[in-house]
Amino acid sequence: MGVTALRIDLEHPERKIFVTPGIHPVSFSSVSIDDKERNFPSRTTSQFLEDFDCIAAVNATPFYPFRIFQGRSQKAVGVVISEGVLYSSPSKYAYFLLTKDDHIVFTDLPFNSENISDIDQAAGGFFLILKDGENIGVQGERNPLSIMGLSQDNRYLYLVVIDGEDKNRSIGASLWEGAEWMKSLGASNAMILDGGGSSTLVIKGEDGKSLLLNNPSGFNLFSRERQVAVHIGIK
């Protein structure tokens, strides 16, 4: 199985979590409803890392439609907050929050978009799979997965991609198996971000350019990576 994992020490004084900003805040009244819904220019995870000078990045929130070319508009399916600004409203799925006092929360509770003054960053995903050390993922189909997790002491953040859809390399993992991988790495809480062919994990190489760590299954003629709407970056 192709598993690629990064562990980020959140006690490092220079580390910062950063979520893709949209084009317009949700509250921007002069923007049409259609423009607000398709509020993110498509880009690969590598391009996101370079555009925002991150040291690591993973694909995040589910989105539509698929785009072949960079810069085309996409809608995020789930909450997106970047540097305190709301760019996408919540969905029925789970999400993570980073408060302005650096507290990280994974939750699937209803989100109150009227009260975001204490939130610095947020990104939606799909499902919680690990809660206080308990595996709550389900056994089912094996697919590529992008996963975000946190250690019990809140010190270490884990960004993990499990490759799939390739019988010669990796067939992916179920949600239950993904949770077991996160436990083995040291996570106590974890959630599934967007998976499938979008699952991509990159770091900043020695030359300052992005370095792709996994083998995405959603590549096309123009790129090994899929163009997606939202990413989680580490600065």
List the helices and strands and how they pair.
Elements (H helix, E strand, L loop, with lengths): L2 E7 L7 E3 L13 H5 L2 E2 L3 H7 L4 E4 L3 E2 L8 E4 L3 E3 L2 E4 L6 E5 L4 E4 L11 E6 L3 E4 L2 E2 L9 E7 L4 E7 L12 H11 L1 E6 L8 E4 L5 E3 L18 E4 L1
Antiparallel strand pairs: 1-15, 2-19, 3-6, 4-17, 4-19, 5-6, 7-8, 7-11, 9-10, 9-11, 12-13, 12-16, 14-15, 14-16, 17-18
Question: What is the gist of this entry?
Answer:
The chain has helices at residues 33-37, 45-51, 175-185; strands at 3-9, 17-19, 40-41, 56-59, 63-64, 73-76, 80-82, 85-88, 95-99, 104-107, 119-124, 128-131, 134-135, 145-151, 156-162, 187-192, 201-204, 210-212, 231-234. The chain is mainly β.
Task: Describe the model.
This protein is mainly beta and 235 residues long. It has one domain (3-234). Helix content is 10%, strand content 34%. It has three helices and 19 strands. The chain has helices at 33-37, 45-51, 175-185; strands at 3-9, 17-19, 40-41, 56-59, 63-64, 73-76, 80-82, 85-88, 95-99, 104-107, 119-124, 128-131, 134-135, 145-151, 156-162, 187-192, 201-204, 210-212, 231-234. The strands form four sheets. The protein has a six-stranded antiparallel sheet, covered by helices on one side. Strands 2-19-4-17-18 form a five-stranded antiparallel sheet, covered by helices on one side. A hairpin with a 2-residue loop joins strand 7 (80-82) and strand 8. The longest helix is centred in the last third of the chain and has 11 residues, at 175-185.
